[in-house]
Write a structure and sequence with these properties.
Elements (H helix, E strand, L loop, with lengths): L3 H21 L4 H26 L5 H25 L5 H14 L2 H8 L10 H11 L1 H6 L14 H7 L11 H41 L6 H16 L16
Helix pairs in contact: 1-2, 1-9, 2-3, 2-9, 3-9, 4-9, 8-9
Keywords: Membrane, Transmembrane, Transmembrane helix
Length: 252
C-alpha cells in the first residue's frame, strides 16, 4: 500500500500552493483546472513508483488507467461539491477553519470595527452588536463566499453591508470590507484543505488496491523476499501457552 506520509507530503504541498493561489486570485478557472490535473499526475506518479517497487514489469495501462478512473469518479465529484455546495464546507470550516480565523485575530478585528456596546440600550442595532461580540462563532458560521448562497445575507460581502449601521463611523471602509470577506474565505479554504487531504489519500489507496487486483504481476526480487519473510514469520509463530484454557462443565 502507498505510504501515508508520502501521500500527505505530495498532496499537502500541492493543496497548499493551490489554495494560496486561489486566495490571491479567487474563482480563477485556469488555476482550478491545473490543480485537478496536478493531483491526477501525482496519483499516477505514486502508482508508478509503487508498482515499480512490487512488480518486475508493471502493467502500464493499469498504472495510468487506474488513477484516471478513481480521479474521475471520486476526486472530481468531491472537488465540484466543495466548489458549489458551500454547506459541505461547514463541518470543517466551522471547527478547524474558525480556529484558524480566531488565531489570526478575527475577534479583535470585530471589536475594532463594531460600535461600542451601550448598557441599557435595547434597540435592535445594539442587540445585534452584543450578539456578534458574545458569539462571533455563531455569526461567522453562517457566512460563505459562495456567490450563489441564498438568502443573500449569508454571503460575506452582503453581511458586511448589513453591518454598515453597526460599525464605527471611520471603520466602514473598503479595506475592512476586504479583510472581513477574507476571514470567511480563510475559514472555507481550511475546510477544503482537510477535505482534499482525506479524499486524495483515499483515492490513492483505492487506486492501489484496484490495480493490484486487476493487474497481477510477477513480484520483484525485493518484494518476493518481503513476502517470503512474512510467510516464514507466520509459520514460526507459536500460540501463547500462558493463556489459561477455558474448561466447560455441566451439572445436573
Amino acid at each position: 500500500m502507498p505510504d501515508l506520509s508520502v501521500n500527505l507530503s505530495f498532496y499537502g504541498f500541492a493543496s497548499l500552493v493551490y489554495l494560496y493561489m486561489i486566495y490571491v486570485n479567487p474563482d480563477n478557472l485556469l488555476i482550478k483546472v491545473l490543480f485537478l490535473l496536478l493531483v491526477l499526475g501525482i496519483n499516477i506518479l505514486l502508482m508508478w513508483w509503487l508498482m515499480s517497487q512490487q512488480c518486475v514489469n508493471p502493467n502500464t495501462i493499469w498504472v495510468f488507467g487506474g488513477p484516471v478512473l478513481t480521479w474521475i469518479f471520486l476526486f472530481v465529484p468531491v472537488f465540484w461539491l466543495l466548489e458549489n455546495m458551500y454547506v459541505w464546507l461547514q463541518p470543517f470550516g466551522n471547527t478547524f477553519g474558525y480556529l484558524v480565523m480566531k488565531l489570526m485575530g478575527v475577534t479583535s478585528f470585530m471589536d475594532k470595527i463594531l460600535k461600542d456596546k451601550v448598557p441599557g440600550d435595547n434597540s435592535r442595532i445594539n442587540k445585534y452588536i452584543n450578539y456578534i461580540r458574545s458569539d462571533p462563532w455563531g455569526f461567522f458560521s453562517m457566512l460563505t463566499t459562495n456567490e450563489d448562497a441564498t438568502p443573500s445575507i449569508l454571503r460575506a460581502d452582503e453581511a458586511f453591508n448589513e453591518l454598515s449601521d453597526k460599525l464605527k463611523p471611520d471603520q466602514n471602509t473598503p479595506a475592512n470590507r476586504t479583510e472581513f470577506v477574507n476571514y470567511v474565505r480563510i475559514k472555507e479554504l481550511v475546510a477544503k484543505f482537510i477535505f482534499y487531504l482525506l479524499t486524495l489519500n483515499l483515492m490513492t489507496d483505492i487506486t492501489a488496491i484496484f490495480i493490484m487486483e486487476k493487474s497481477p504481476c510477477e513480484l520483484s526480487e525485493q518484494e518476493q523476499q518481503v513476502q517470503d519473510q512474512k510467510a516464514k514469520n507466520s509459520a514460526n509463530a507459536k500460540p501463547d501457552n500462558n493463556v489459561p484454557q477455558t474448561i466447560y462443565s455441566t451439572r445436573e
